[in-house]
Design a protein that fits this description.
- The protein is an alpha/beta fold.
- It folds into four domains: 134 residues, no CATH class; 164 residues, 3-Layer(aba) Sandwich (Rossmann fold), CATH 3.40.50.10810; 179 residues, P-loop containing nucleotide triphosphate hydrolases (Rossmann fold), CATH 3.40.50.300; 82 residues, no CATH class.
- It contains 32 helices and 13 strands.
- The strands form two sheets. Strands 3-4-2-5-6-1-7 form a seven-stranded parallel beta sheet.
- α30 links the parallel β12 and β13.
- α9 packs across α10 and α21 packs across α32.
- The chain is globular, with a radius of gyration of 30 Å.
- The two termini are 43 Å apart.
- Belongs to the SNF2/RAD54 helicase family.
Length: 720
């Protein structure tokens, strides 16, 4: 039955609730069940509302067992016309945005074209392979959502234009830094501009994103802004700073250094300590502090903490490293969105990305009033976003990305070091390709052969991620996999550990199972820790059989002799474990910080490195040590293994190349020659080339599959 109009009004509450229930089924894309009751037939009639130019129909097709060709008319309502036109003309990339539309269904829709009319469309869908008429209502839902998103973006664009004019009109509120700041410290000219921008945003009651390049002092600008608000009596409520754990102490240091008049509280510590703080703050009605500093984990750690931040009256909430808020569909985003603050400022060192989900997620934070009423439609739209490279995005997504970028412009301030720091020392980038050690290369070539043969044998799903990770591990160091320890060794190790009362497990079979999944280095670590298996420890020579370590043997002695200090990053803790052994073998003085380092110890490690010139190398994990910390005492950054996302590596290198650096900085990237690392670096480099615009989708899973196919010599359109 084709949808038709009806003048019936809802006169019965049960009819109304039934209709509402069915509308929910349609909007969520759930399959309808056949109903034979009188009330269900009534609800179907109720749903056939008149269409006007302001509203969409609830559905365009409702099939029943009694349908025949004669019942289906070629007359089309306005909603049906839109669905018909879309299915008749949309390219495959647009069709794939429809809920439940797979590549097979999209191909079936295209194969059925051209559709001569509504009846022809229904017949072809009913008789098509792998397709049916359910796609009609899903298409309607998709088009409805698009319409709502498009109208919303137009409204936001109008507001953005008027906001831009208002910001321009009040752009010079402050000509000098607030007197409340430490007088011996002076803001840089561009930092004073940033303070002005924040002050104007406050005067216009607007939220914003401060996205200065890493190393330009976003923290200091926020401290100065809070000082400005206090000095001028512009707030009576506390502010909240939410930051990564690694930057917590740095925030406290900068507040104390730049504006000691601000009363500071740090929300961190044990559950008991945090509970004591909550009780005290509630008792004092949050009146004893100007600024609270905490971490992302603390905000959402427990129901009590989530409740406190939801009801605590705050003036500003600052989200440091705000690229963590790029997905509105996550639980963390929901908790952070619910923080009870009048205003929000987001800080990030990376540019906006050409990713509509991320742009809309940030816009929702910056302009919550515009998005709140339509958030369910926006989430529905992103339940099936395209995840395609920028140049292959559907036209609708491209249009909305351009709108989102334009809307974001007045709420977004980004300056680059090259533009504002004329006296910042130069930064030199170099890539060193490291030939694999002979044994390493032999193992790598053999693994490639095995994975290629395995991919040829697999008819169904192929675990490309696991295979790719094996290649990455071996490209870095053979000890990251298991080659040295044979199964007979594992049997003896398991027996000895089972008899050791200090070991956690007493069942030798369970221990043996665990050992089978361990790498050579992990088993070596056990042999170091437990005396009963000490004879299984690896010789030092096993740790030196890496192409990258061979290159480090050339680099590090020369750097040390010339008085340079080194910060070395790796994405992987297990690689840092191996590098740590290498450093001890070669006698280099070093410190280490990674995600497992206790938060209380992190700032102490950073201070020790910055103050003690005898510490030659600082080992850091890219994610934990690459964010928000200052290591300007070093002038050489070695990226041991490159990241898919080039901005993670840029975050890392800018720990040294930032405000306060007095020496030229050298960035060295190590790439294992002839391995998957070459492809990873090429992918990251291509993303960076788009920096002046906005970088592309960071879908690492898609990248991994494509790169593995290339490495194994499989066509990129062939299924693994």
């Amino acid at each position: 039955n084709s949808a038709h109009t009806s003048k019936n009004k809802r006169t019965n509450s049960s009819d109304s609730s039934t209709a509402e229930s069915e509308e929910n089924e349609i909007s969520t894309g759930h399959k309808r069940k056949a109903h034979t009751t009188c009330s269900s037939r009534k609800s179907k009639r109720v749903k056939r509302n008149a269409f006007d130019n302001e509203h969409w129909s609830d559905f365009v097709y409702a099939s029943s067992e009694d349908d025949s060709d004669a019942d289906i008319s070629d007359y089309m309502s306005e909603s049906q016309k839109k669905v018909f036109e879309f299915l008749n003309t949309a390219p495959v990339t647009e069709l794939l945005l429809i809920q439940t539309c797979t590549e097979k269904k999209a191909a079936a829709i295209i194969d059925g074209r051209p559709y001569e009319g509504w009846r022809d469309l229904i017949n072809k869908l009913n008789n098509g392979k792998g397709i049916n008429t359910h796609i009609l209502n899903h298409t309607l839902d998709s088009l409805k959502t698009r319409s709502i998103v498009s109208k919303l973006m137009n409204k936001c664009l109008d507001l953005a234009i008027s906001t831009e004019n208002a910001i321009a009109a009040g752009s010079s509120i402050l000509e000098e830094q607030p007197s409340i700041l430490t007088q011996s410290l002076k803001l840089m000219p561009y930092q004073l501009v940033g303070l002005n921008w924040l002050a104007v945003m406050h005067s216009q009651q607007l939220n914003g994103i401060l996205a200065d390049e890493m190393g330009l002092g976003k923290t200091i600008q926020v401290v100065a802004f809070f000082g400005y608000l206090k000095q001028n009596g512009l707030t009576s409520r506390p502010h909240l700073v939410v930051a990564p754990t690694t930057t917590l102490d740095n925030w406290a240091i900068e507040f104390t250094r730049w504006c000691p008049d601000l009363r500071l509280a740090i929300y961190h510590g044990s559950p008991e300590e945090r509970r004591e703080l909550r009780v005290r703050w509630f008792k004092d009605k949050f009146s004893t502090m100007d600024v609270i500093i905490t971490t992302y984990k603390m905000v959402a750690n427990s129901p009590e903490e989530r409740k406190m931040f939801k009801i605590m009256p705050l003036e500003y909430v600052i989200f440091d490293e705000a690229h963590m808020l790029k997905n509105m569909n996550t639980q963390r985003y929901f908790y952070l969105f619910n923080i009870n603050a009048q205003h929000r400022i987001l800080l990030t060192g990376t540019p906006l990305q050409n990713n509509l989900l991320e742009l809309m997620s940030l816009l929702n934070f910056v302009m919550p009033g515009m998005f709140a009423a339509n958030i369910q439609y926006i989430k529905a739209f992103f339940s099936k976003n395209s995840k395609l490279p920028v140049n292959k995005l559907p036209d609708f997504e491209k249009e909305q990305i351009e709108r989102a970028k334009r809307i974001m412009k007045p709420f977004f301030l980004r300056r680059l070091k090259a533009d504002v720091l004329n006296n910042l020392p130069t930064k030199t980038n170099s890539v060193i390709r490291c030939p694999l050690h002979d044994e390493q290369k032999s193992k790598y070539d053999k693994l490639m052969e095995e994975l290629t043969a395995l991919s040829d044998m697999k008819d169904g799903e192929y675990n490309y991620m696991a295979s790719f990770m094996q290649l990455r591990k071996l490209a870095n160091h053979p000890l990251a996999l298991r080659y040295h320890y044979k199964n007979r060794d594992l049997r003896e190790i398991a027996q000895r550990l089972a008899n050791d009362y200090n070991y956690k497990q007493t069942n030798k079979d369970y221990i043996y199972e665990d050992l089978q999944f361990m790498s050579d280095h992990e088993i070596h670590h056990l042999a170091v820790e437990y005396k009963c298996i000490s004879r299984f420890k690896l010789n030092d020579s096993a740790f030196l059989k890496s192409g990258k370590f061979g290159k480090l043997d050339e680099l590090l002695p020369k750097l040390k002799e010339e008085g340079h200090r080194v910060v070395m990053f790796s994405q992987f803790i297990f690689i840092l474990d191996i590098i740590e052994v290498y450093m001890r073998i070669r006698g280099h003085n070093f410190l280490r910080l990674d995600g497992t380092t206790k938060s209380l110890d992190r700032q102490e490690l950073i201070d020790n490195y910055n103050e003690d010139n005898n510490i030659f190398v600082f080992l850091l994990s890219t994610r934990a040590g690459g964010v928000g910390i200052n290591l300007t005492s070093a002038d050489t950054v070695i990226i041991h293994d490159v990241d898919f996302n080039p901005y993670n590596d840029k975050q890392a290198e800018d720990r040294c190349h930032r405000l306060g650096q007095t020496r030229p900085v050298n960035i060295i990237r190590l790439i294992s020659e002839g391995t998957v690392e070459e492809a990873i670096y090429a992918k990251a480099k291509s993303k960076l080339e788009l920096e002046q615009e906005i970088i592309g989708n960071d879908d690492d899973d898609t990248d991994v599959e494509l790169l593995l196919k290339e490495a194994l010599g499989i066509k990129t359109d062939q299924k693994l």
